[in-house]
Each structure stands twice: as C-alpha cells, then as structure tokens.
Amino acid sequence: GGGGGRGGGGWDDDGGSGRRRSTIRRLAPWIALLVILTPLLIGGLYIYNIYENKYHPADYSGPGTSSVTVQVNSGDSASSLGPRLQSLGVVASARAFVLAAEHTTSTTSTGAPPQLEAGFYKLHMHMQASLAWAALLNPKNRVQLTVTIPEGKRASQVVLILAKETSIPASQFQAVINSPAQLGLPSYAKGKVEGYLFPATYTIQPNETAAQILKAMVQRYDIEAQAIKISSAATAVHLSSAQVIIEASLAQAEGGSVSDYPKIARVIANRLAIGMHLQFDSTVLYGLGKYAVSATIAETKTPGPYNTYLNAGLPVGPICNPGNAAIQAVLHPASGNWLYFLTKPGGASEFSTTPLQGQ
C-alpha cells in the first residue's frame, strides 16, 4: 500500500512539471516577443523624443512676462545664444530658438540669416521662441543710453553730465581722471583730460565703466585729430598740436557764436605775435574754478598758471573741451588786424584794432 502511495506521488510531480513546461512553451513566443519589442519600444521612444525635440521642441506660447536684460556678444548666433536664453528662462528650449531663427532665414528674400547685433536687449521670461528671436532683431529693444556732451564744457562739467545720465557716481569718473594712464591720451596732453574729452553724442551700454566711457571720448578725439591731420595742420600755422587745442578752447569759451571763432583765433594770434598779454577772463575764471561772464579786478590780479592778465603767452593747458568748429577756426583763422573783441548780449562779438567801450 505504501509503495502505491509513493508511485502516486511521483506521478503527481511529473504532471506538475509537465504543466509548467507546457505553460512556458505557450508563453515562450510572447516572452521572446517582449524581449525583442522592449528595446525596440525604448529605442522608438528615444528616437521619437529626438525627433520631437528636433522638429517640435518645447516652446512657450505668447510674449512672456516680466522683463529680463540679455547680453548678445559679438559673433553670437542663434545656436550659441539659445542655451543661454534657455538657462535664463527666456525660452523653453534652445532648439526652439534655433528653429525660429532658421525659419526666419528661410522666409527672407535673400536667404541670408539676419545678423545679431552685439549689445544688451530687453526680453521677457517664458517667451515664444519666434518672438524672442524677433525681439533680438529689433533695435528698439536695445538697452543703451545716448548721452550728448556739448562743445565747450569743462571736464568737471562733463563728469557731472555723465554721472547724471549713467548713474555712475561722479567720484568714479574723477578717480579715472586723476589716474588717466588707461585713457590713451595723446602725449601732448601731459596726462590731463581737459581739452581731449571730445564733445559729441555717445552711445553707452549698461555695463560700461567710467573708464570705458571716458576712454571712448578720448578715442573720439583721436579719430577727429587724425581726420584733420592735426600735427601737420598745426605746423602749417606755426603751432604745436597742444597749442591748437589750447587756442581752440579759448575761442570756444570766449566766442558768442560759431562764426566768431575764426576772428577770435586771429585776435589770439595777433596778440601773441606782438607779445601782448591775452587778458582773457575765461582763463582766469577757469584757473579759479569759477563760472561767470567776466572776472573781477581782484580775480585778474590773482596769480596762477591760467591768469593771462599776469602771464604772457597761452595758459598751461586747455580751459574746456573744444569742438570741431573751434579747432578748425584755429587752423584757419580769419584775416584781420584786430587786437580786441567784445562779446555782446545775444552772442555776436565786435572786433576792433583799438580797445572797445566796456573793456
């Protein structure tokens, strides 16, 4: 009886194993299919994601919210700028930005990609890529200051104008002026910026320093000086380059109108030729750091390197920053034997060979 029981047990075991093998055999094709399909599915999803990211990348919709300033560097393209815009949160993906740029290129008549201009631009967070690209091509979105420095301002006045317009403290500009080696002044300036901060309209970028702004003004002077070949032009009128700028600053400061500058330049030349003191109130006042229409008797008797009542010849340096008209006046003075002039209210000056009423 016991043996029969064991035989029965063996039969049951074989039956269980058979059923398992049968189940495995039935599932085998499915398992094989799963083994084959799983990598295919994963690979397919991967390829699909690559395709989607390439041709339908993540993108925001609309113009975005809250402003952000973005710097475009010289030589930047959509592909170099895209990752930065993505990290800043301007665009949802760098790829969407590149596609937007490529689409713009394909729709332009020339087929040439529009060039990004270096500078700072006002954009928004979470912008649609095409709108971000369009915004960077629009000059209206450039963040920059335009500052005009009028002719005839003293360096101290230029500093105040720049400080007011740029919000850079005047002390920072003054610190650069006190240590001007970095400005590239001409050798004949003798380390003084007065006369060499060229009056013009300047475009100032948001991250520019006081040194960079002042350097741009000196560079502009250099460009103007080279354009008129100042060294040879000065020699032609028996002056040095430094003397031209000093005399131009005097004509600029004394002249009531641009048309007077060449005549004032002639008066300066005539007085110097006969050894007569210039006796310009403008130089006296500059030396004293004052502003007025005319100097007092006491002021004209105050010794100093800019006192042309007490000292013969030109003052030691320019007394303001002259513009082109005043410089040209010194290089091309009017013809005349005048030794005196008087600037009338309203701007016009009267010129004479003898002292005028009021002098």
The ordered H/E elements are: HEHHEHEHHEHHHHHHHEE
Query: How many structurally independent domains?
Result: 3
Residue fraction in strands: 5-15%
Q: How widely separated are the two ends? A: 153 Å
**Helicity level:** 40-55%
Please tell me how large the radius of gyration is.
40 Å
Low-confidence segments = 2-11
Mean pLDDT, as a whole number? 89
Instruction: Give the biggest sheet.
Output: 2 strands, antiparallel
Q: Find the structural class using helix and strand composition.
A: mainly alpha
Q: How many individual β-strands? A: 6
Strand order of the largest sheet: 1-2
User: Count of helices?
Assistant: 13
Shape call: rod-shaped
Description:
The chain has 359 residues and is mainly alpha-helical. It folds into three domains: 65-141, Endolytic murein transglycosylase (Dna Ligase, domain 1, 2-Layer Sandwich), CATH 3.30.1490; 145-227, Dna Ligase, domain 1; 230-352, no CATH class. It has helices at 2-55, 78-88, 94-107, 129-137, 155-166, 170-178, 210-227, 230-236, 241-254, 261-273, 281-288, 297-300, 324-331; strands at 65-72, 119-125, 145-148, 201-204, 340-343, 349-352. α3 (94-107) packs across α4 (129-137), α9 crosses α10 (261-273) and α9 packs across α13 (324-331). The radius of gyration is 40 Å and the shape is rod-shaped. The chain starts with a helix and ends in a 7-residue tail after the last strand. Residues 2-11 have low confidence and may be disordered.
